[in-house]
């Protein structure tokens, strides 16, 4: 389950994420509306409660990012586009 808390500072983050176009993305992410639908690395539920998240993300530039993400509209599009060190760790 990937529950994301968006941090305000880089020091609080477990992962630094850049929003990019589809062709440059490491991971295509579909944002889901409930915690129960969030599973795997590519279906994200955003929470406002840091203690209930399993990943704290800081959105930054591509140069500072560990992970490049593109948000997609459907479940079927979501997934990794290439091998990545964070695969299975979100």
N/C terminus separation = 8 Å
Structural class: mainly beta
Helix content: under 10%
Q: Rg, please?
A: 12 Å
Main beta-sheet strand count, sense and barrel state: 6 strands, parallel, barrel
Number of helices: 0
The number of strands is: 7
The low-confidence parts are none
Mean pLDDT across all amino acids: 95
What form results from the Cα inertia axes? globular
Order of helices and strands: EEEEEEE
Our estimate of the beta-strand percent is 35-45%
Strands in their spatial order, largest beta sheet: 1-4-3-6-2-5
Descriptive overview:
This protein has 90 residues and is mainly beta. The chain is built from no helices and 7 strands. It has a 6-stranded parallel β-barrel.
């Amino acid at each position: 389950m990937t529950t994301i808390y968006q941090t305000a500072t880089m020091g609080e983050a477990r992962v630094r994420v850049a929003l990019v176009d589809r062709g440059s993305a490491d991971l295509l992410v579909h944002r889901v509306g409930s915690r129960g639908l969030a599973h795997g690395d590519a279906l994200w539920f955003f929470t406002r409660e840091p203690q209930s998240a399993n990943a704290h993300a800081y959105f930054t530039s591509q140069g500072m990012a560990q992970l490049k993400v593109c948000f997609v509209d459907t479940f079927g599009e979501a997934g990794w586009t290439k091998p990545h060190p964070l695969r299975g760790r979100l």
